[in-house]
Specification:
Layout: H1 4-8, H2 16-30, H3 39-55, H4 58-67, H5 86-97, H6 103-119, E1 125-131, H7 133-138, E2 140-151, E3 167-168, E4 177-184, E5 187-194, E6 203-204, E7 217-228, E8 237-240, E9 256-262, E10 269-271, E11 274-281, H8 283-288, E12 290-296, E13 299-305, E14 314-317, E15 333-339, H9 347-359, H10 373-384
Helix pairs in contact: 2-3, 3-5, 5-6
């Protein structure tokens, strides 16, 4: 798919009003009802609507600006425009621009039927799933148990008692809408409203199904498997199109939105794709150097502590952090060294330190750090939250 900004003919710093104005113009241009049902026009209508839906939402736009379309796809990255279809495009267009006076008549009866169908779409379900840092690093498959409204089996979703069927509404003849013509000095205006007798459905149920009481759906638990890509954060989410509640009386399914929760790991702090680990060492290890093992996301790693290291210095383990959402690069694990000062010395330790004090040199007025100031600021913020 082309760049969203290019699709709408916008610069990357376009504001919300520019986005809405440009999209409305293109949507009118490509709407199939204005192009004799052209499949090419339908596809362009869908594409510009998908671009609009992302760019008019600050969170989705930020994700798109950072990671591109991959950051929005349900299966390849959270944020989910994966599975976006023409019915979604119509729903979005009618949601944001369907309230203009006389708009319904521009697209004729076809637009009215589309609006009625999408208004019966099932509601979106939101569920949460917890992830550990190792799961964030490698990606994960999860099985969710979700309570969902599904099609009622006895009435096959119609809402009518078994052995009966809904009948055509006598008021609207099955159209589901009532048209009102008003004349004024400015000409003739046509407004379209849902039929009050059948509430816009075009059918009337005379005998309700005993199982669902006319809803056409019943609630049940179901298991859904999801794949979470590596590199996600708690700001991301997955959208599974058409996996939510079924709509009343045969309406299309809504979506299932999976909200991601990243569990705290006492071993690490996180800053984007970099992770931080605090390593306490003794004075002798700091002065003489040592070889130690430290925890990593996927196990442990051998680390060399250089002689003369100072408390607060850091050691960098390249590419042992987390991957970014696109999976192209991986962050580092940064080890912050803390020289531990014992508080409960035995006699032998006190004597050893007294002997050291007699021969050691005085501390300098300023300690030269192994880190440059810009990076040190990030390390400090990661551990202090400042």
């Amino acid at each position: 798919m082309a760049d969203y900004y290019e699709l709408l003919g916008l610069s990357r710093d376009a504001d919300l009003e520019e986005i809405k104005k440009r999209y409305r113009k293109l949507a009118f241009k490509y709407h199939p009802d204005r192009n004799e049902g052209s499949k090419e026009a339908e596809e362009l209508f869908k594409q510009v609507t998908e671009a609009y839906e992302v760019l008019c939402d600050p969170e989705k736009r930020s994700m798109y600006d950072r990671y591109g379309e991959q950051g929005l796809k349900g299966s390849a990255g959270p944020g989910g425009m994966g599975g976006f279809d023409f019915s979604d495009a119509i729903e979005i267009f009618m949601r944001d621009f369907g309230g203009f006076s006389g708009f319904e008549d521009v697209f004729g009866a076809s637009g009215g039927r589309t609006q009625r169908s999408t208004s019966r779409k099932g509601k979106t379900i939101r569920v949460g799933v917890s992830l550990t840092l190792p799961e964030v690093a490698l990606g994960a498959k999860k099985t969710l148990r979700v309570s969902i409204l599904g099609e009622c089996e006895p009435c096959a979703g119609s809402g009518a008692k078994s052995g009966t069927e809904p009948v055509v509404c006598p008021e609207c003849g099955g159209a589901g809408e009532a048209r009102h013509v008003q004349r004024s000095v400015f000409g003739q205006f046509v407004s379209v409203q849902p039929c009050q007798n059948c509430h816009g459905e075009g059918r009337i149920i005379q005998e309700l199904c005993n199982s669902c009481r006319g809803e056409g759906r019943t609630r049940g638990d179901t298991e859904i498997e999801i794949e979470v890509p590596a590199g996600v954060t708690a700001e991301n989410f997955l959208t599974l199109r058409g996996r939510g509640n079924v709509g009343p009386r045969g309406g299309p399914r809504g979506d299932l939105v999976v909200l991601l929760e990243i569990e705290d790991d006492p071993r690490f702090s996180r800053d984007g794709s970099d992770i931080f680990h605090e390593l306490p060492i003794t004075f002798s290890q700091a002065a003489l150097g040592d070889e130690v093992r430290v925890p990593t996301i996927e196990g442990t790693a051998q680390v060399t502590i250089p002689a003369g290291i100072q408390s607060g210095d850091h050691l960098n383990l390249k590419e042992l952090g987390l991957p970014d959402l696109n999976g192209h690069v991986r962050g580092d694990q940064i080890i912050r060294v803390i020289v531990w000062t014992p508080t409960d010395l035995n006699t032998q330790q006190e004597e050893a330190l007294e002997n050291l004090r007699g021969v050691e040199t005085l501390a300098p007025e300023q300690i030269r750090r192994r880190t440059h100031s810009g990076f040190w600021s990030r390390v400090k913020e990661a551990f202090t939250g400042g």
